[in-house]
Design brief:
Number of domains: 2
């Protein structure tokens, strides 16, 4: 019905107000226990921050908390006493996280993969395992503050004019950098030297990866520092790593993946026996178990 004031979410039969929408989101229940709407809203904010739309974020949050509720119900049924562990500097599990971990530890026994299995996974596509590339890069920065719309427009216009000038005279890059760049690298003609993945902001790195050797960005690249005109001077592609170099990390990744699949199996089994309404439970997600972590 259009014009309804809100969408109802229910957990195990109880109704609660959800986000305003005409799209017909429904209520969610799990074995009679209601997931508090404020909790869904708080979880949904995490999904919105990850780039999901409002409706999709709300559904993902409801799904995650339904799974979490299901696991906590089973932990209580078994009488598992939570014993929170330290999981980082000044960070301990909550009682709920510890209870879910205890449940999963009780139900999951994933052996470490043997060397033959690890080698077979590596041999399936050895090119997946490479050392990071290195780029030799120069840039011209037209600095501005992202919150200053007028300053952004002015800096973009400067960078666009420089880009147009370099299309006609690429050899002028160093001279223009020395006279117009707002970066400390201006004294070196804009040369930044060798950089690798993660050394710059994501937008800058993405622009580098799109360039061929000797190429200049066809349009200015915006980052939080301003507008950049970027030139890729050289690239050293990462070399393929031998099996011995990746054996340990690959074995750990395989074990974590196997543990995640086993955790999803626990959720599927519990969901098959549960009374869940108002959400199409997606048991292929790790959202409901992500705080528990893989047992050490």
């Amino acid at each position: 019905m259009t014009g309804s004031p809100a969408v109802l979410f229910t957990v195990n039969g109880r109704q609660a107000l959800g986000p305003r929408s005409g799209a017909g989101l429904s209520a969610v229940t799990v074995n009679g226990e209601v997931v508090p709407i404020p909790a869904i809203a708080a979880e949904a904010r995490n999904h919105v921050a990850a780039g999901r739309g409002r409706r999709e974020a709300w559904e993902a949050a409801a799904n995650a908390l339904a799974i979490r509720t299901l696991l906590l119900q089973e932990a209580r049924r078994r009488g598992l006493a939570p014993t929170p562990r330290q999981v980082g500097p000044d960070r301990h599990e909550t009682d709920e996280e510890a209870a879910i971990r205890a449940l999963l530890e009780q139900d999951i026994d994933v052996p470490a993969p043997d060397e033959q299995a690890v080698r077979a996974e590596w041999a399936r596509d050895p090119d997946r395992f490479r050392s990071p590339p290195l780029w030799e890069v120069a840039h011209i920065l037209c600095a501005c503050t992202p919150t200053d719309a007028a300053g952004m427009a002015e800096a973009c216009a400067r960078a666009s004019a420089i880009t147009a000038q370099l299309r006609d005279d690429p050899q002028a890059f160093g001279r223009i950098a020395r006279s117009q760049s707002d970066c400390g690298s201006r004294s070196a003609g804009g040369v930044l030297g060798q950089i690798g993945p993660g050394d710059t902001v994501p937008e800058f790195e993405a622009a580098i990866r799109a360039l061929s050797r000797g190429e200049i960005t066809p349009d200015p690249v915006p980052t939080r520092h301003g507008w950049h005109v970027i030139r890729l001077d050289a690239v050293a592609e990462g070399r393929r790593l031998p099996f011995e170099a990746v054996k340990g990390p690959l074995a750990e990744a395989m074990e974590k993946s196997a543990w995640a699949r086993a955790a999803q199996g626990v959720v599927r089994r519990l969901a098959a026996e549960a009374d869940i309404t108002g959400v199409r439970l997606n048991t292929d997600t790790e959202n409901g178990t992500r705080h528990a972590g893989r047992p050490a």
